[in-house]
Amino acid sequence: MLIIDVISIFPKMFNNIINYGVIKEAFNKNLCQLNVYNLREFTDDKHKKIDDRPFGGGPGMIMKIQPIDSVVNFIKKKNNIINKELQKTILLTPKGSRLSQSKLKYFSNLENIIIICGRYEGVDERVRELIADMELSIGDYVLTGGEIPSMVVIDGVIRLLSGVVGKEESLKYESFEDNLLDYPQYTRPPTYKGYKVPEILLGGNHKEIEKWRKEKAINLTKKRRPDLFDKNN
Fold first, then answer.
1. Is 153 found in the same domain as 177?
2. What is the rounded CA–CA span in Å between residue 41 and residue 146?
3. Is the pTM for the entire model greater than 0.85?
4. What CA–CA distances, in Å, run from 78 to 7, 57, 122?
5. Residues 118, 148 contacting (CB under 8 angstroms)
6. By the number of CB atoms within 10 A of the CB, which of 156, 169, 222, 233 ranks highest?
7. 163 in a domain, yes or no?
8. Residue numbers of the domain that contains 200
9. DSSP secondary structure string, the chain?
10. Model confidence pLDDT, tens digit, residues 36-75
11. 19 and 59, same structural domain?
């Protein structure tokens, strides 16, 4: 079972994440466990303060290392993961490496993921140096905090766990597999407002259909994401 631990100053944001779709099924089947920790409960400040002004001046506030260090140590002792290679602490930050499908696959094979949700102007740099195993970004933009990015990671990881998706074969034929975007998909009716489903998909020749889908996936990737296509060449 995969244990996902999230560290946040807004834990209530995660109240409903496990209640919908295949993610809900994963928890019903005990394939994963989600724990959300309120960072303020681990600060040694009597006012429950978890941030402070940056040394050297500048705008905004910086999240302090002490409460983050305390909660991560608490989580690690609680989970007691024997093989430390199967436990990773992730700091969500715009400075991190870009989230990808290959990273989600890697996370899905771990036993424990600890996710640190940053806020304000960021976290003390020593969190990266002393606590986090990796830094992760979900894109080249800035959000108000790491909570929504953490939900992206959680959703992407859980759907890859064995037994979550009804037909696991479908995971092999979706965007970013083999560095290709997914091929076009159609369903009934075969004609709608004059737009018809390609005849090849209606003929039942599965060999030709697979060939058509492969060609479409390649052409679509060349046009929309040449950076992905270049990885195959």
1. no
2. 18
3. yes
4. 14, 38, 27
5. no
6. 156
7. no
8. 173-230
9. -EEEEEEES-GGGGTTTTSSHHHHHHHHTTSEEEEEEEGGGG---TT---EEPPTT--SS-EE-HHHHHHHHHHHHHHH--SSGGGEEEEEEEEEEEEP-HHHHHHHHT-SEEEEEE-BTT-B-HHHHHHT-SEEEESSSS--SBSHHHHHHHHHHHHTTSTTTSS-GGGGGSSTTBTTBPPPP---S-SEETTEE--GGGGS--HHHHHHHHHHHHHHHHHHH-HHHHHTT-
10. 999 999 999 899 999 999 999 989 999 999 999 999 999 9
11. yes
Residue 228's Cβ-count burial label (10 Å; 0-12, 13-18, 19+) is middle
For 11, 182, 204, the CA distances from 216, given in Å and listed in that order, are 43, 8, 18
- Amino acid letter, residue 210: E
Task: Please report whether residue 106 resides in a domain.
Answer: yes
